Amino acid sequence: MTLATAILLTVITAATPLLIAAIGELVVERSGVLNLGVEGMMIMGAASGVAVAIITGSSTLGVLAAIGAGVALAAIFALLTLALAANQYASGLALTIFGVGLSGVVGAPFVGVQREGIGRITIPFLSDIPVIGPVLFRQDLFVYASVALVIGVSWFLWRTKSGLILRACGENPVSAHALGYRVLRIRLYAVLFGGACAGLAGAYLSLVLTPFWTSGMTAGRGWIALAIVVFASWLPFRAMLGAYLFGGLIILQLHAQTAGVAIPSQFLAALPYLLTIVALTLIMAARRGTGAGSVAPAGLGQPFTPDR
Amino acid sequence: MADRTPLLVAEALTRRFGALVANDSVDLRIMPGEIHALLGENGAGKSTLVKMLYGLLVPDGGRILWRGEPVTLANPRAARALGIGMVFQHFSLFDAMTVAENVGLALDEAEPLRDVAERLREVSRAYGLPLEPGREVWRLSVGERQRIEIVRCLMQDPHLLILDEPTSVLTPQETEGLFETLRTLRDEGRAVLYISHKLDEVRQLCEAATILRQGKVVERCDPRGQTAASLARMMVGSQIAEVRLSHAAEATGPVRLRVDNLNMPSEDPQGTSLKGVSLELAAGEVLGIAGVAGNGQDELFAALSGEVLAPRAADLTLDGTPIGREGINRRRRRSAAFVPEERLGHAAAPRMALSENALVAGHAANGFLRGGFIQRDRMLNWVDAVTHAFDVRKGPRDPEARDLSGGNLQKFVVGREMLRKPRLLVVSQPTWGVDAGAASLIRQALLDLARDGASVLVISQDLDELFQIADRIAVIFNGRLSDAQPTREMTREAVGLLMGGEGFGPATPGATPGAAPGAAPGQARDKEGVA
Predict the structure, then answer these.
(1) Cβ–Cβ under 8 Å, residues B454 and B423
(2) What share of chain A is helix, strand, coil (3-state, %, to 5)?
(3) Which of A63, A118, B213, B245 could form a cystine bridge with B218, CB 3.0-4.6 A?
(4) CA-based end-to-end distance of chain A
(5) What pLDDT is stored for residue A209 in this prediction?
(6) How far apart are CA B221 and CA B202, in angstroms?
(7) Interior CA angle at A200 toward A195 and A201, to 5°?
């Protein structure tokens, strides 16, 4: 395995959980809901996934449990922000704090328990292509799933009526309601989908990347996922680009630390957020004066209460 | 006729909002092939009634019969499935999406966007409402946005079309075109429920009318046998004060506002650049500016108010002082006042109380602050004063701006500026969507202000309004302004021709740098309309 292949492989593994969580949050935000609880849902996914996998001995059940945990937390968020029209920012932050705390309890009995990670799938012949072969065709299911997610979500949002309706709810919930769409129900589905994605991303951390539980193991990846959505200006393929870029930065940070490069690791850790700000600034500069307004869904973060 | 089943019957429909009974046992009967007017002042319950008929609100009592059968309209989808379509007064459009996407969202069957775009092109052409399916809504003028609403309704092939003030942003020619469309629909056996404040239109178009006052049906009549005055009397229950016409003798005072060959490229590439705009406005004069939506009215307003600064200070002079480079607050301190077209979001912040809105607009001149602290009682008194002077109807003393009905908020934002007794008032669409009583109140106030020596500039698409109150009328077309002519020397036909761009001389897009080909909406429309 060449050095280039090795680096690409590590970047992909670092980027995949970011991508899965970001694509879920992207759908949520396109429906007009801002869920800052990604970190909390992700770490609950990681803890539940590893716990169930160790108890049952089945990685599949572990993954399902992780998705279930993400959905469960998202359901709490939906109850607060959709049914009770609570403030989305506060509820999301609370969800993260809650998830991080609860994951410590769930994961406590399993600290230090090692298990076999979910392996990679090798596609015959294709994986023998030099450099890109192992990168593209010797990966775990999650990596393929994440790419499928990007394509699927992009197709859904821009090629289907349901996707159009979802974007309409994010753009102008009042008008969507006036047309007869059930804004809250559509937003609920989006929020639950986001939770499932965050849970799945968490499972990747605790079942593939580092196949054991340590508390706080998401280490801010949920926040990076949120930043990616903004960086990507709410577009799925740009989110993919952002995830790989930020995944690369995480790897760079690790290597710089071990190689003793004189860049403070804190600076590299802050870099994704800095890049997000730069990207946003550039996008807005390009759109300035066109009258197009912000790239964000116009109804993002607005609670909606139908008047019946 | 007698044995025909009505298309839609509402029986004793009642709807309450808290203590307010918005609809009190309302009966309505619409026959197939009938254009039925629904009249009433702001807050009379018209919107509540049609929302129930469109499935947006659930009635507290009463029932709805469709072709004689009782129906429950759980949501707009159910209403559309029966064949009820609705054009909203407040546009229900998605700015970031294209025309085709906006239309597709209102269709109940999934249809590929390409087909939607194709059908949209056909329908819009057939009914003389040309639209470009691929354009995003934020690029379009108010008039064009209204067309989307109408076209998207027509595409659903409705049996009953509900139109909430559809002509408020159309030119006389466009209005006539819409009437043709509606008459065609009627001849096809469809019914139209038509809400309008323009009583002459109602008399011209409708063969039945139901009149609401304070949530109750007070009258049913055939509007063709009525006069505008008698209809208005039924609506308000008393005589509406006639606006006292008082066209002053030419230029009553010294020139107060002068715009001198103002050239302003639009910041928005889809906007209209102002080209060589000149005007003079004397003290005590009302100058009206007519034009089709999207021909530079917004840009002219922004230039006059100081929201966008002119290239040179001398481009604009107020009482001889160059003010072209002064911002909006400095102009306000010079006793100028501005009322923009969009009342919610531009003239007023939706989620702020009226008093706070008064402060935000008045902080440059009103003296609501003492040592940096807000004088709350003064603000509230000011709100009371505006409320009283302009008959603003509201529940609590100081509600949020968005809680007021459109007409009442309009009275508030106009009143807020007028009560300061400005020497110059620039107002855009002063009575859009306002009922007859309130419109007459606002127009009278504008005239009174001018009689007291102020200069008033009214940008309006309502020609009746301009002919009623303006001393002189100029027409804006594609960013250029015609010479203002005394109103009594103008005819509606002449103004209409100017609004269509005739008499402006050769102004090819190539000759005026900065003008994109698409920046001539009036012209482009006419061509498409013919094709």
Answers:
(1) yes
(2) 75, 0, 25
(3) B213
(4) 64
(5) 86
(6) 12
(7) 100
Q: Confirm or reject contact between A165 and chain B (CB < 8 A).
A: yes
Local structure of B297: helix, strand or coil: helix
B392/B314 Cα distance (integer angstroms): 39
DSSP designation for A118: P
Give the helix/strand (H/E) hosting B370.
strand B369-370
Q: Which residues of A touch B93 (CB under 8 A)?
A: 172, 175
**How many Cβ atoms from other residues are within 10 Å of residue B135's Cβ?**
16
Contact B95 A293 (CB under 8 A): yes
Distances (CA, A) of B190 to A30, A69, A242, B35, B445: 38, 54, 54, 9, 41
Do A180 and B55 count as a contact with CB atoms less than 8 A apart?
yes
CATH class of B8-236: alpha beta
CB atoms A291 and B270 under 8 Å: yes
- Beta strand extents in B45-159 (DSSP E only): 61-66, 69-71, 84-87
The region, left, alpha or beta by phi > 0 then psi within -120 to 50, assigned to residue A291 is left
ipTM of the complex: 0.79
Cα separation, B55 vs B76, in Å, equals 5
* CA neighbor of B263 nearest in space, from B255, B272, B251: B272
Alpha helices in B244-367 (DSSP H): 297-305, 328-333, 354-362
**Residue B366, pLDDT score:** 66
Per-residue tokens: B476: 């804006």
| CATH class held by domain B255-335+422-530 | alpha beta
Q: Do domains B8-236 and B255-335+422-530 have the same CATH topology?
A: yes
Are the C-beta atoms of residues A164 and A38 closer than 8 Å to each other?
A: no
Mutate to test the interface with B, among A155, A157, A179, A300 (most CBs of B within 10 A): A179
Q: Which two tokens stand for residue B436?
A: 């007859």
Hey, is the C-beta of B97 within 8 angstroms of any chain A C-beta?
yes
Instruction: Please report, for chain B, the start and end positions of each structural domain, with discontinuous segments joined by +.
Output: 8-236, 255-335+422-530, 346-420
Secondary structure class of A34 (helix, strand, coil):
coil
Q: Which amino acid is at A119?
A: G
Closest listed residue to residue B348, CA positions, set B438, B411, B424? B411
Please give the full DSSP string across B225-246, using - where no structure is assigned: GS-HHHHHHHHHSSPPPPP---
Number of Cβ atoms within 10 Å of the Cβ of B286: 29
What distance in Å separates the CA atoms of residue A208 and residue A197, rounded to the nearest whole number? 16
Closest by CA position to B248, among listed B459, B490, B453, B431? B453
- In this complex, is the C-beta atom of A286 within 8 Å of any C-beta atom belonging to chain B? no
Residue B252 confidence (pLDDT): 66
Q: Pick from A181, A307, A304: which is nearest to B51 by CA? A: A307
Confidence (pLDDT) at B517: 36
Which residue of chain B is at minimal alpha-carbon distance from A162?
B110
Q: Are strands B424-428 and B336-339 parallel, antiparallel or unpaired?
A: parallel
DSSP secondary structure letter of residue B471: S
* Mean pLDDT of the residues in chain A: 88
One-letter amino acid at B152 equals: R
pLDDT of A180 reads: 83
Answer yes or no: do B97 and A168 touch at CB < 8 A. Answer: yes
Give residue for tokens 């063969």.
Answer: B207
Can you give the pLDDT at residue A18? 95
Q: Output DSSP code: residue B137.
A: G
Q: What is the full DSSP assignment across B398-440?
A: S-BGGGS-HHHHHHHHHHHHHTT--SEEEEESTTTT--HHHHH
